[in-house]
TrEMBL record:
Pfam families linked to this entry: ECH_1 (PF00378)
The organism's place on the tree of life at top rank: Bacteria
Name of the molecule in the record: Crotonase/enoyl-CoA hydratase family protein
SUPFAM superfamilies listed in its UniProt record: ClpP/crotonase
Assigned keywords, A-Z: Fatty acid metabolism, Isomerase, Lipid metabolism
Gene source species: Ruegeria spongiae
Annotated family: Belongs to the enoyl-CoA hydratase/isomerase family.
Lineage: Bacteria, Pseudomonadati, Pseudomonadota, Alphaproteobacteria, Rhodobacterales
Keyword Cell membrane annotated: no
Positions in coiled-coil regions: none
UniProt keyword Lipid metabolism, yes or no: yes
Pathways per UniProt: Lipid metabolism; fatty acid beta-oxidation
Length: 260
């Protein structure tokens, strides 16, 4: 069965986890399908992405079949392999969405646990329904976060809150998640809100949006001087070019811009 569906509409890629009867839990097929979906969307001309899960949950974390597989002899080679630049395959579940060159908005509901939370962290923006529960669940199984979370979490959360979530594996509410930086916004219908935001973003200059994501990603890990140089380089690549000139013309004429 397909684990992920992708639909394109109005320059927005709608990526849906389609294992709702299993809480969209991450088995090996789901992991491969999510990574493949990220690669497909990255290569497309989409201007924004909405990432969601069917059913009652966004993603309940690892499927028990993964734990069974860990008892075999291949887990060491699987985790040690750097098949995706600096990442292994499980890490790419989250990091693939940071590699997508346009903004990714995750619509969260129900359980967002373990690997599911780390998948959500790969998005630029996370909109959660009231009642959503988020957990760094790995300690429950005697493990540590290892699906890209330790690259992404320290940029979002203060250290004491992060440590508490990792050490205890206790779920927190969407409201607490918003206080701690895991949730961008709480909305009664997170999927509708994510779609509306994606369409708003898709209406902006495609080249400027892509440049902004590159610049944000670089600034989170670069030295000050490198970030300042990158600002200048990205701006010079935009000024006076067709997308920017169309934005100026549309603003002057009181109309929506039309990008080629």
């Amino acid at each position: 069965m397909a684990r992920v569906s992708i639909e394109y509409e109005n320059h927005v890629a709608h990526v849906t986890l389609t294992r709702g009867d299993k809480g969209n839990a991450l088995d090996s097929e789901m992991i491969k399908a999510i990574v493949a979906a990220g690669q497909e969307v990255a290569a497309s001309d989409a201007r924004a992405v909405v990432l969601s899960g069917e059913g009652d949950n966004f993603c309940a974390g690892l499927d028990m079949s993964i734990f069974a597989a860990m008892g075999g002899g291949n887990v060491e080679s699987w985790l040690n392999a750097r098949d995706f630049g600096d990442a292994n395959e499980p890490q790419e579940v989250a990091l693939a969405w940071r590699r997508v060159p346009v903004p990714v908005i995750a619509a969260l509901k129900g359980a967002v646990f373990g690997g599911g939370l780390q998948l959500a962290l790969g998005a630029d923006i996370r909109i959660a329904a009231p009642g959503t529960k988020l957990a760094i669940m790995e300690m429950k199984w005697g493990l540590v976060p290892d699906m890209g979370g330790m690259v992404l979490l320290p940029h979002l959360m203060r250290s004491d809150a992060l440590r508490q979530m990792i050490y205890t594996a206790r779920p927190v509410s969407a409201e607490r998640g918003a206080e701690w930086g895991l949730v961008t916004e709480i909305h009664d219908d997170p999927l509708a809100a994510a779609r509306a935001l994606a369409e708003e973003i898709a209406s902006k200059s495609p080249s400027a949006i892509r440049a902004a994501k590159r610049l944000i990603d670089l600034s989170e890990r670069a030295e000050r001087a490198d970030a300042l140089l990158a600002e200048t380089a990205e701006q010079l690549a935009l000024i006076g070019k067709p997308d920017q000139m169309e934005v100026v013309a549309a603003n002057m004429q009181g109309r929506k811009p039309a990008f080629k």
